[in-house]
Design goal:
Blueprint (H helix, E strand, L loop, with lengths): L4 E5 L4 E6 L2 E3 L2 E3 L1 E3 L6 E5 L4 E5 L2 E4 L6 H6 L6 E5 L6 H11 L4 E4 L12 E6 L11 E7 L9 H14 L4 E4 L7 H14 L3 E4 L12 E3 L10 H15 L4 E6 L4 E3 L7 E2 L3 H4 L4 E7 L2 E6 L6 H11 L3 E5 L7 E6 L3 E11 L4 E6 L7 E10 L2 E4 L4
GO molecular function: ATP binding; ATP-dependent polynucleotide 5'-hydroxyl-kinase activity
Function: Polynucleotide kinase that can phosphorylate the 5'-hydroxyl groups of both single-stranded RNA (ssRNA) and single-stranded DNA (ssDNA). Exhibits a strong preference for ssRNA.
EC number: 2.7.1.78
Length: 383
């Protein structure tokens, strides 16, 4: 390998440096492996010998954009990244953390989370041999239960603030690719006001609302874009990893707090009127809502209107107990433990069976907004 040149390692490829040293996104090392869905630019700062398995492309010079190199010529403490999907933000996180010796990254991309799992945000610490963001050490995690911040801004911002408060001054912040529209801009501005970065690095055209901040415009750098199917595949592999050694645990509702659901929070309703519409497994009135759990509750618009008036509620929610099966939840002790999948809700005993890779009984369970079926998300509405 000639000094100053790059070998682009295609997915599933491996490279072992036998003599000399190589670099991927600022990370020096002697062994690199490109997982499925990833392509790695392996740069050789000196003449080297290497063994390569799989497909690769030899390129003259460095493939790292000039704007990236220019950015690391200055010292920055807290860096906020802004850009659309597949613009190179995660790779930039790795590059900057190595080049500027920044130890911590806040991965706030809830859809394509690298440090934790989809549906969460995480604070990670750089490892010296980490050439991918997924290789950073997980330090702290917050569950948000969705793979998009749209319509869940408040919940996401609460999680984001908690992680920012736990981080040190030196920090790189990766974000989602949701940038279009007024609400997306407002969401990013709220994050910026929480994080108070020294600079906003923009991989897409910055909105004019950023004019009061220090902005650095960087080139997008993605060798191979990932389509929707590949992104779904990567999320599926992440779920698989988090549930590798999972086992079923049972928790009593009396011993755990349930957040982001009204399940078991109201007054139980046992009324013959409800049974006239189907087999009711459980029903409860929670404030201005009536929640009915049934597999065959058959009611039309006029019937719903009548129930609202009879029970003096604003909404009536009819939920199939099957909607709980494989619902993604977040398990907490004093800190976040891990994600879980609900396997069964026992309405009579008020107990919940959860599949999770922890032996510790949770003190709090936060409900998500989707189930996992065959590695894919299925969105459900649980009141």
């Amino acid at each position: 390998m000639i000094e100053g040149n790059t070998t682009i390692l295609l997915e599933n490829g491996k490279i072992e440096v036998l003599k000399g040293e190589a670099e991927v996104f600022g990370c020096r090392g002697k062994y690199f492996e490109a997982p499925k869905g990833k392509v790695l630019p392996v740069y050789f700062p000196e003449d080297s010998e290497a063994r390569i398995e799989g497909n690769y492309i030899a390129v003259n010079g460095s493939t790292i954009p000039k704007s990236w190199e220019k950015f690391v010529e200055e010292d920055w403490n807290r860096i906020f990244l802004y850009g659309a999907v597949d613009t190179g933000k995660s790779s930039f996180c790795v590059f900057v953390s190595h080049k500027l010796d920044i130890d911590y990254v806040l991965d706030a991309d809830v859809g394509q989370a690298d440090i934790s799992h989809p549906g969460s945000m995480a604070l990670g610490k750089r490892r010296e041999n980490a050439y991918l963001l997924s290789m950073f050490q997980l330090i702290s995690c917050e569950f948000v239960g969705s793979i998009s911040p749209m319509n869940r801004e408040a919940r996401c911002l609460r999680a984001f603030k908690k992680l920012v408060d736990r981080a040190g001054e030196n920090l790189v912040i990766d974000t989602t690719g949701w940038i279009h529209g007024k609400r997306a801009v407002e969401y990013k501005l709220a994050k910026i006001e929480i994080a108070k970065p020294d600079v906003i690095v923009c991989f897409s055209d910055p909105p004019r609302e950023f004019s009061d901040y220090e902005v650095f415009e960087a080139e997008s750098f993605v060798i191979k874009k990932r389509d929707r199917e590949m992104r779904a595949y990567i999320r599926g592999k992440s779920y698989e990893k988090w549930f590798e050694n999972a086992r079923e645990i049972e928790v009593s509702v009396d011993e755990v707090k349930l957040y982001f659901t009204s399940l078991f929070s109201g007054e139980k309703v046992e009324d013959e009127i409800l049974f006239s519409f189907g087999d009711v497994i459980y029903a409860e009135k929670c404030g201005s809502s009536l929640n009915i759990y049934s597999e065959n509750f058959d009611i039309g618009g006029e019937g719903l209107k009548a129930l609202k008036e009879y029970y003096n509620v604003v909404e009536v929610n009819v939920v199939s107990p099957k909607d709980f099966e494989n619902l993604l939840v977040g398990l907490y002790s004093d800190e976040y433990l891990c994600p879980g999948l609900i396997k069964e809700v026992d309405f009579e005993e008020k107990k919940i069976k959860v599949l999770a890779s922890t032996s510790e009984k949770p003190k709090r369970i936060e409900f998500g907004e989707f189930k996992i079926e065959n590695g894919r998300e299925v969105f459900v509405r649980i009141p």
